[in-house]
Structures are given as C-alpha cells and as structure tokens.
C-alpha cells in the first residue's frame, strides 16, 4: 500500500527550465512510500555491503566515523514533483566502496520494511550517491527515510531507498520493487525514464 501526502503546491516546468521534462516545482517535501513508515532506532540500525566475495557491516557509530559530506542538490520524483536546492548531510558511497573488490556492476538496495530498488554501480560512485541522515540541518525524519536513506539525486527519487539497511552486489540488473511493477530499470528524470 502506498502512502502519500496531498495538496502540495506545484508549478509547471515552463516557469522553471531547471526542471526535468514533465516535472512540477514544489516547495513542500511530499511523503510517498511503498509501505508503512519504518521506525528504526540508531542503536539497532545496521548497514551491510554484500559482494560476491563477502559481507561488511557497519553499526550507526561505525558509519558516523566515516567521512561526512554536505550535499546540496535537486530531487525529482517519478510522480512529477521536483524540489530544488535541498540540503543534506551524508556518507558518500565512495567511502563505503573504498577498497571493495567486486566484478559485479549492479546493486540491489535493501530497506528495513522489505523495499528494494536496483541501481547500476556507476550511478552510486564518483560523488553521485550518499547514505543521508540529515535534511535541512535536522536529523532525517522517519517519514522521509530516517534514520538513514540512500540519496541518488540524479535519478528519480524512488531509487533513493528510504530506511536503507544494505547494498547487495549483483551480476545482473535484476529489478527491485517498483521496477518489477513497471518502473524503468534506471530512472533518469532528464530522459523521462519513468516506465519500461
């Protein structure tokens, strides 16, 4: 069951050329989820990276000891809203993958609550993706994926998995939850890659 907020104010793309095609500008931060909000205490939170060669795991404290970055970016939802100039704090996936030896080129992100989404590894590295734990200077609220969510802002926002708990390397670009239900395997908003 999807959860969403109603009534957020939108403005058409024609009034702002910085919006991808078919998008509308919102000042709000709409809440859309594939299921109920997950409430994960940071004492219980764990994050894993599973490759074909083994598994690495981080506690909250271990994750917070990694380099933290400030991220200023626009975000775009497949439901056609865009929010410009958002500010986040998070851990670059470049730090998570530092020293990782894998021949696989695809990743399945796993969330608390069972949600999954597939992302090519190239879309997660090179300063393109983070494990985000703050939004607008405040701890990330559970309705927006707190305590930690994946942030992949150059793709539609369903790729930025809420309540992230791990990344599993995969040999093939197997589809995640929304991708199995007709959403595009990659989801580039500038190419309007909404559906298969």
UniProtKB/TrEMBL annotation:
It comes from the Bacteria. This is Molybdopterin-binding protein. Residues 36-178 form the Oxidoreductase molybdopterin-binding domain. Pfam families: Oxidored_molyb. Residues 1-22 are annotated as: Disordered. PANTHER family: OXIDOREDUCTASE MOLYBDOPTERIN-BINDING DOMAIN-CONTAINING PROTEIN (PTHR43032:SF4), PROTEIN-METHIONINE-SULFOXIDE REDUCTASE (PTHR43032). InterPro entries: OxRdtase_Mopterin-bd_dom, OxRdtase_Mopterin-bd_sf. Gene3D superfamilies: Oxidoreductase, molybdopterin-binding domain.
């Amino acid at each position: 069951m999807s959860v969403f907020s109603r009534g957020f104010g939108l403005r058409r793309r024609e009034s702002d050329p910085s919006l991808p095609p078919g998008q509308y500008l919102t000042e709000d931060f709409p809440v859309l989820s594939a299921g109920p909000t997950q409430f994960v205490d940071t004492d219980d939170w764990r994050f894993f990276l599973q490759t074909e060669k083994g598994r690495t795991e981080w506690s909250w404290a271990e994750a917070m000891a990694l380099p933290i970055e400030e991220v200023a970016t626009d975000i775009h939802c497949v439901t056609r809203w865009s929010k410009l100039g958002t500010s986040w704090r998070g851990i670059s996936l470049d730090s998570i993958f530092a020293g990782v030896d894998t021949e696989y080129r695809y990743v399945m992100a796993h969330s608390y609550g069972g949600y999954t989404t597939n992302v090519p590894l190239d879309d997660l590295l090179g300063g393109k993706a983070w494990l985000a734990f703050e939004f607008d200077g405040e701890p990330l609220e559970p309705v927006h994926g707190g305590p930690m969510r994946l942030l992949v802002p150059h793709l539609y926002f369903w790729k930025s998995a809420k309540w992230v708990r791990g990344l599993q390397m995969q040999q093939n670009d197997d589809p995640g939850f929304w991708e199995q239900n007709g959403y595009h395997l990659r989801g580039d908003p500038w190419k309007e890659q909404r559906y298969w």
